[in-house]
């Protein structure tokens, strides 16, 4: 852990007394809140003391009265092996076959009657507004799809960033299982129940349900997303050609155009036009935005296609309404998992994330290709 940051600024203390920020978006890009959103399964650290509304109560026994599925592992291709129980005979799958050996029950996210909450911790002292420590991010995870696939002028570019902090003391985490689907169709659930235990004898908290993780996500109220089109190919942007303007949260210079999107989470409201934090289906706090290239683009040069810089930054003092307390100085970028068995006919247009410690940000230059049909 880093040393104590002994700061006390009146504006921070005042900000902490203001009404709470809007609830976390519970899926999708930019602010949509569903009636019964995802539960927090992975620990989170509130870097600036600004918290979000979560389902359930941390440390309380989960309420598991909703839908569930049997889960017993994955196949050779990594697809989940799972099934819903049969109506009238929950000892078998809908198909009538018994679940596979080593099965667990997994209680679905987004269910009114399934409620749990992992541990969370605020770094702001509630008495005087000082920070107990700096939120030093250990790992930055850009969504794998941004790094590993081609994008086009009609694409919905899903932009996700997750900040992880390594811990020296464990925090309560709930074990999750992937039950079906991929991407936006994924279904996950909380693992509960031991193989062979009859349903009527099962308790909610049994072996495999809770774990004490040594990582947590970091939520910063000062996080910002900026999208700008480069005026040259991304390979031609030499170091120092662009200058970061921390007062405006954007890049300036002859090789970049003004932003087509430039929003911070502290500005978030309802609707798709905002940048917001979400609890994803795995139960993690992430930053998410779905960029609809067809409707949001830069045609200054007469075409949508080109290279766009997507920047995740942290607003500094004077821009963020609370005292900033999140640092990327000691962070590393997690690389996407490569599909080594797949041979590409041509190089992917996926982006390679870059960490800019001096400006406390990370960016990815995404190539948007042109094609007449999606």
Please tell me about this protein's structure.
There is one protein chain. This protein is mainly beta. The chain has two helices and 27 strands. A hairpin with a 4-residue loop joins strand 18 (243-245) and strand 19 (250-252). 39% of the residues are buried. The model is unreliable at 1-35, 194-209 and 338-347 (pLDDT under 50).
Key descriptive features of the protein:
374 residues, mainly beta, 2 domains, eight-stranded mixed sheet, six-stranded mixed sheet, 2 helices, globular
How are the elements arranged and paired?
Layout (H helix, E strand, L loop, with lengths): L9 H8 L26 E3 L16 E2 L3 E7 L5 E4 L1 E2 L2 E5 L10 E5 L5 E2 L4 E3 L12 E2 L2 E4 L1 H5 L2 E2 L3 E19 L1 E5 L6 E6 L17 E10 L3 E7 L13 E3 L4 E3 L8 E4 L11 E4 L5 E8 L13 E9 L11 E2 L4 E3 L19 E3 L4 E9 L5
Parallel strand pairs: 1-9, 1-16, 10-24, 11-25, 12-27
Antiparallel strand pairs: 2-8, 3-4, 3-7, 5-6, 7-15, 11-13, 13-16, 13-22, 14-15, 17-20, 17-23, 18-19, 21-22, 23-27, 26-27
């Amino acid at each position: 852990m880093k040393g104590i940051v002994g700061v006390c600024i009146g504006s921070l203390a005042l900000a902490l007394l203001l009404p709470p920020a809007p609830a976390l978006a519970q899926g999708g890009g930019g602010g949509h809140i569903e009636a019964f959103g995802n539960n927090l399964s992975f620990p989170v650290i509130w870097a600036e003391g600004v918290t979000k509304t979560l389902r359930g109560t941390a440390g309380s026994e989960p309420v598991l009265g909703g839908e569930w599925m049997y889960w017993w592992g994955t196949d050779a291709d990594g697809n989940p092996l799972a099934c819903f129980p049969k109506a009238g005979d929950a000892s078998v799958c809908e198909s009538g076959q018994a679940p596979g050996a080593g099965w667990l029950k997994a209680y679905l996210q987004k269910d009114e009657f399934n409620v749990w909450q992992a541990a969370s911790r605020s770094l702001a002292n509630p008495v005087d507004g000082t920070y107990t420590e700096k939120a030093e991010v250990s790992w930055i995870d850009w969504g794998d799809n941004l790094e590993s696939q081609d994008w086009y002028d009609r694409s919905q570019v899903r932009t996700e960033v997750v900040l992880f902090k390594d811990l020296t003391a464990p925090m309560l985490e709930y074990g999750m299982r992937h039950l079906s689907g991929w991407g936006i169709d994924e279904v996950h659930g909380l693992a509960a129940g031991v193989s062979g235990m009859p349903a009527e004898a099962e308790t909610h908290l049994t072996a495999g349900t809770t774990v004490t993780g040594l990582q947590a996500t970091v939520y910063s109220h000062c996080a910002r997303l900026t999208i700008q089109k480069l005026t040259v190919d991304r390979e031609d942007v030499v170091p120092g050609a662009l200058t970061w303007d921390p007062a405006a949260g954007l890049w300036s210079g002859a090789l970049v155009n003004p932003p087509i999107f430039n929003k911070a989470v502290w500005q978030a409201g309802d609707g798709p036009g905002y940048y917001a934090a979400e609890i994803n289906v795995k139960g993690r706090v992430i930053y998410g935005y779905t960029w609809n290239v067809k409707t949001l683009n830069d045609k200054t040069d007469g075409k949508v296609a080109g290279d766009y810089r997507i920047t995740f930054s942290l607003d500094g003092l004077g821009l963020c309404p609370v005292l900033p307390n999140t640092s990327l100085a000691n962070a590393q970028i997690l690389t996407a998992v490569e599909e080594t068995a797949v041979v590409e006919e041509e190089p992917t247009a996926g982006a390679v994330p870059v960490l800019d410690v001096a400006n406390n940000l990370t960016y990815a230059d995404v190539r948007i290709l042109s094609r007449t049909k999606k």
